[in-house]
Structures are given as C-alpha cells and as structure tokens.
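Need residues for this backbone.
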C-alpha cells in the first residue's frame, strides 16, 4: 500500500516536541475507562455501553457538551481513579510527541459530589509524576473555577486548594461562558495571584471579544484559552500580537461545539498573519474526536499550514509554557 501524504504529515507533527496547554483532564475520560471505573466503584455508569456513550457525543453547543461532561465525571471517585485517568492521557500524549503538559482540573465538579480535594489532587499529581519519570513529560497543574457558579464558591475552592499550592501552579476559568464574564471573578483571581498562582482563562469561545479584554485587563492572564472571537476586534488582535499573549486554540473542539461553522472557516491563518502567537491543543479529546496530533492536522488541512508554520506553533507552545 502506498503511503498517503497525510501519513507523512502526521509523522512530522508527532516528531515536533510540543506542549499541550489547553487540556481538561476530565475531558480525557474515554468511554472504556468510564465504564471500567463505574464497575470498580460499583455505580451505574452514565452510559451502559461504549457505543451508546459515543452516540451521545453529538453537541449543538458548549452547554450541551458540558451537561454530558459533568455527568460522566461521576465515575471519578478515588485518588486511584484520577491517577488512572491522568496516566491514560499521558500515554496518548506521549505517542503524539508531547513533552510538556499543563492540564486543567475542575475541583468544583468533584467536591460537590463529596470527593475530597486530597483525592483529586493526589491522584492527578501521582499520575503526572509517573508520566515525568517514565515518559519524560514535564508538567504544571492549573485549577479552574467553574464560571457558571458564584465568585464566593470560587473563593471556597481556592481556600480548599491552599494546602496543595506546591503542586498547583495556576488558576483558570472554564464552563459556560455566555453571561459569565471574567469580571465576575476579578477578586478571586487577584487573591490567587496574591498566593503566587499564575493565571489563564477561557475567553472568546462562545463569549464576545470584550470577554478577552476583561481576561487581560481584570484577571491579568498570561494566555487565553480559545480566544477565537479576537478576530472581531482589530485593536485586540494588535494588543495580543504586541504583548505576545498566546491563544490556545483547539480546532476539533471548536468544530464539534459549533463555535465555527466548519473548519474551512477556522481563523488560525488570520492569527498567524496578524502576528498573534497561537498554540494547538485538544481541549477534551475523549469527546471531540482527536488528541493533539489530530488537532494539528485539522488546523493544517483547514488553513493550509506549512511544515514551517506547524513547527513554529509547536515551538511557541514551549515558549508559552511555564516550564
Ligand atoms: N470550554 C469551557 N469549559 C470547558 C471546556 C471548554 O471548551 N471544556 C471543558 N470545560
Ligand atoms: Zn477548554
């Protein structure tokens, strides 16, 4: 059988050392592991079979996805569950040439079910340390606040995390974006920064360019997750380029959540031409149809990115990381 050009390009993409900077660890829960953990914890799985789980992964928007994503996290109960989840992700990331990861975790989606912060953090960190020892993948860990909840609840989460600040390096902001602007969380981000934590935020995924400004000006973030709507605002594009603030893009996520009408409309090329640094990540790969190499290939196909451009994106991901 003759090799297809995409096979060569995949090999090239995999060969590039890269950092994955936009990855929700809960979003790496593959249906097979979901079912195995449900059995181990003797609970009813959210889906009875892998096929039915996959059939349900058909989303009209971000909130559609989030409902299912939070339901699936119910199988994560013990430190061992979080460790297995993290290790399974790291093996896949390693196969795609990832040398550094900065995963997000959503403690509020577990604390509310009675899972202790110690089980969540110890499990994830044990997995990350194994990945460092056995696969050579370095890491930083980012705790996200759920933006559909109140700022008071985010403060409670920050307090619960204080014993673990030696292994938590930054805070992020995720969940349902519409009507939950970054300004709602300005005080808790200031408190987090006061504790020595670094900051990132999802902005401009379903929300407007204005939310990206707020993330920069009020939360003082170093990177923006998604940030697609920056294309609507020239002054913002200029600011991102001048300050070298990266946008952590996830093309397959944006396609599956219908943030862009289709990938031919994907704006990676516009960001490159405007001098805005971009990185490429997989967001919630168990749900969106691919890990990081698939996301590089999707952007390359959509925007005709050259090998030099893909290599520059990979290099920028390492520069933008907190290694
Ligand atoms: N956006 C917002 N919240 C999220 C996402 C996302 O893409 N994935 C997991 N939580
Ligand atoms: Zn995300």
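Answer:
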């Amino acid at each position: 059988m003759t090799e297809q050009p995409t096979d060569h390009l995949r090999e090239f993409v995999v060969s590039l050392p890269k950092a994955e900077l936009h990855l929700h660890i809960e979003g790496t829960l593959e249906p097979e592991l979901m079912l195995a953990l449900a059995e181990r914890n003797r609970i009813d799985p959210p889906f009875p079979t892998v096929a039915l789980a996959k059939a349900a992964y058909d989303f009209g928007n971000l909130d559609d996805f989030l409902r299912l994503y939070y339901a699936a996290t119910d199988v994560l109960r013990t430190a061992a569950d979080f460790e297995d989840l993290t290790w399974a992700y790291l093996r896949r990331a390693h196969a795609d040439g990832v040398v550094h990861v900065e995963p997000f975790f959503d403690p509020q989606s577990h604390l509310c079910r009675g899972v202790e912060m110690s089980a969540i953090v110890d499990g994830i960190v044990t997995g990350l340390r194994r990945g460092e020892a056995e696969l050579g993948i370095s890491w930083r860990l980012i705790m996200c606040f759920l933006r559909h909840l109140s700022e008071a609840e985010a403060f409670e989460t920050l307090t619960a995390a204080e014993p673990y600040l030696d292994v938590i390096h930054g805070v992020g902001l995720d969940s349902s974006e519409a009507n939950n602007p970054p300004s709602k969380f300005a005080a808790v981000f200031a408190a987090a920064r006061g504790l020595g934590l670094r900051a990132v935020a999802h902005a401009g995924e379903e929300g407007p360019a204005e939310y990206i400004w707020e993330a920069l000006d009020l939360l003082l973030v170093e990177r923006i997750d998604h940030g697609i709507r920056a294309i609507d605002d020239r002054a913002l594009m200029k600011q991102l380029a001048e300050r070298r603030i990266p946008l952590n893009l996830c093309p397959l996520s944006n396609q599956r959540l219908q943030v862009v009408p289709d990938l031919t409309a994907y704006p990676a090329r516009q960001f490159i031409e405007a001098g805005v640094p971009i990185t490429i990540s997989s967001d919630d790969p168990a749900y969106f149809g691919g890990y990081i190499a698939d996301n590089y290939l999707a952007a390359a196909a959509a925007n005709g990115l050259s090998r030099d451009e893909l290599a520059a994106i990979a290099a920028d991901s390492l520069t933008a990381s907190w290694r």
